[in-house]
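During data preparation, we tokenized the protein backbone, and the record follows.
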Amino acid sequence: MQKGNAPIERKLQRLFRREDACKMIKRCNDFGAGGVSVAIGELADGLYIDLNKVTKKYDGLDGTELAISESQERMAVTLAPEDVDKFIAIATEENLEATPVAKVTEEKRLNMVWNGVSIVNISREFLNSNGAEKHQNVHVEQGTVWQPQWAGITFSQKMKNMVGDLNICSKKGLSERFDSTIGAATVLMPFGGAYQLTPQNAMVAKLPVDGETNTCSGMAWGYNPYLMSANQYIGARMAVVDSVTKLVASGFRYEDAYLTFQEYFERLGTKPERWGKPLAALLGALDAQMGLGIASIGGKDSMSGSFEQLDVPPTLVSFATAIGKASKVVSTEFKKPESTVVLIRPILDPETGCPNFFSLKANYKIVEQMIEEGMVASACAVGYGGIAEALFKMGLGNRIGFKMRADMPTHRMFEPMYGSIVLEMVSDSPAGELLGETTREYTFESCGETLDMAELQEIWESKLEPVYPYRKAGPTVEKINGKLNAPAAPKIGVAKPKVIIPVFPGTNCEYDTAKAFARAGADPEILVIRNLTPADVTASCEALVKAIGESQIVMLPGGFSGGDEPDGSAKFIASFFRSPAVTEAVRDLLQHRDGLMLGICNGFQALIKLGLVPYGDIRPITAYDPTLTFNTIGRHQSMLVRTRVASTGSPWLSHCDAGSEYEIAISHGEGRFVAPQNVLDQLVANGQVATQYVDLEGEPTMDQRYNPNGSLLAIEGITSPDGRVFGKMGHSERSGEYLYKNVTGDKYQPIFEGGVDYFKV
């Protein structure tokens, strides 16, 4: 398997977002397992593939290796002959190689040629038959009954053991390694509430369109490895029920849902009993599809989950997905104290113990109607840990407690009621079983006991902390209140300032950034920097110099230029801007034409490496200058953080008040701002510390929950001495209607409006 290449994958995404490119493509396929033989071999019935034309990373591959080599950052496309040159030109514009390697033939055969010799020449009829006909005896064994057993007798004992279970405890330290806000379309953050702790039922994101939209997609999953191991039929059936229930609890209609399955089973061999496991799972999933009237439209399977005597548990993960309205999406965390909480529970089939599908669908309709009418504040599907798990997790995000009113015995609190939904109501519920009410006290009162939620939360958070840490306490730091002298207004006003946004290999925030500037009234232009050949680099340099000369603002967006290795982030951007022609164009913009520059995340890293912040000019950098280095946690961090404006005067912050606070998305691995003490003192004195990370009380802090990278003085952004250049780690461009609905705070920081309006004199 060849190593993947994330910057190239990003360029492929750009190519496939282009209308002119997509309209030429007849068929396409990604290069996964099987390489050329599958990616190209599936595109047409008749194919002539010249393996000598296939571009490769490594020399020495023979024909067979070329035919089957996996390479994740490649796509195969089928084009009309007259479109080939035009398509290659478009790919070149996107800094991609495009090479004709095969032709569609009339004869329905797959013919693969290497060094002039056919090494594969097979009829399509034979390929479609999957080879020789095979038969296998299958035996589905009698399943057993699974019931979770939480150690302890009292409610308190069982709760403490349950919240510390590996299937229930916090996975926040793992989840935050992945960028959850890329594309500025995230409707639900992975963890909700002011404290960002309540796990959500589903992933929800708006569709990626130009402009604004209320249309979003949702996806939820279902799978219980213990239940699947005991009974594959019941396990698969419940996996489907669980995934669809989570989707409905998030504000989607089950009638609009589709399914896709991820299957993974032990190596089957010839034993009928081993073959019986995937058969039973598929029958259970099929019955659920028939019962709910929802189709599975795809999936992936593997029957190779064995190593010596070790087998994977029978696995069928159900993913349910649907299109809905972002305005109707409901999150999982309790919203306020003194809310009524009810349980919507289906009737169970006495033979299988599974929800009756008629009852389940009727309940779905009830929940859908209540959400549509705005009666539901929060909702949580009940699963592995029963009602106890659902109520506990719903309280975490906003530190809200719960008092049980229903007379429910301890053992029933922990029953896995798949298909059931807990609802926090805005008004009285027309349906469901009353469970109790939310409370201001951060306690869980049930079964005659009152439990300290903070103690339970600590057990829940600490279980995986040695493996996936995300907490580290730290002191508060100085609250900086500075002001720099605002630069004079431009000599010549511009009604619609032009913004040039260079896209380097690895840049991934250009679309969001362009949208933010357009929304603010600017005219953004995206320029792809090409570096496949020396001539490409020269041409791109000339194009950037020309574009800077025609623009009022230069914007360096976020991403991972050059893959951020091996010498740290943004090195390629910095090297490009240090070319004499580009350096002089930037100096002319800032020193003679009243221009502005902004760098966010990867762009901030580039500004630091160039010296544009904090010095306002491109200059040599020494060990005594500020820099952005690895987060103290030692890994990538993705979450929302709260920042406060520490200094005004910069045009970028002209629409912000001193001390104002904003919830901003961050996503970086190298965001820790460090500098010698004398430099820090000078930045504070000059009013160049623009923004700081703060806690929920608005205090700058070194606590890792709020200062995710450990920046000194909790610094999130700084400016040049005159405020024309602004660099910050937080992605202020990742904002929009219905984004991050499950986290409180002001998510719209008007820095783009500030920069654009500076030119409207």
About this structure: Residues 482-757 form a domain with the Rossmann fold fold (CATH 3.40.50.880). The longest helix spans residues 272-292. The chain has a mean pLDDT of 94.
